[in-house]
Fold this protein.
Amino acid sequence: MTTHLTVTGTSWVTPVMKRVHFRSDDLSAFAESVQTDRYVKIVFPKPGVSYPEPLDLRALRGTIPPEHLPDVRTYTALHPDPGAGTLAIDFVVHGDEGVAGPWAASAEPGDALIVNGPGGGYRPDPDADWHLLVGDESAMPAITAALDVLDAGATARVVLLVDRAGHEPVLPLPANAQVTHVYRDAAVKEDTATPEPLVQAVRELEWLPGRVHAFVHGEAQETMLGLRPLLLKERGVDRSRLSVSGYWRRGRTEEGFRVWKSELAQAEASGADSPAR
């Protein structure tokens, strides 16, 4: 379902993550959404290209040149309140890089966005003995939403990758939660092109007894080829107790990332080696 959003304000969650607050006259698409990893597809029209109203991506495909199609980016929708017509989206901002980050950096009240969704597939199991939440800045909003719904006495372990000291977010932690911060600037070494600091941090984490429910998302190479086998094979986590996926791929746009995910799925289905790049 397509939802029209209007910016009402902004705030900074960390030095590189900007929260944009929205309102809408119709948030009915979110009325039944209970997943804490709920996401939307944000549609960014190409500058200088005129589109028919209402803007329907499926109807556009095949009718205009591919390079004129709007860019689409996937983001977590935070705190949707259909009654009040409000929600928020956190954007990682790295200067002029990308499409969504620069938009968020300059967003002002009155600016508009079109989103499709929501989707989602994870919510912390209240019957789990403990919760493992692992990710980088891209997963931070979904981790925040998951922590928001945990019982006050829930046991949780959070492993979060950020750029450097001073970039840690304030998280809504239950009483029995502990956070391990991993710093990207300390983890990158000259002799390794694809460092995996989250894999190392999770491997060194004290493994608690009982049934774990895990949410593990972030950079795809590290998440799918590093953390997933670590948890499934080394730690013996049941697949039904693990939500794991890549949110982005180092060195690729979202369009290129979709191709990589397709290649990975095909390789796994055939038993061939996973895509290296």
About this structure: Residues 93 and 105 are 7 Å apart (CA to CA). The longest strand covers residues 2-14. The radius of gyration is 19 Å.
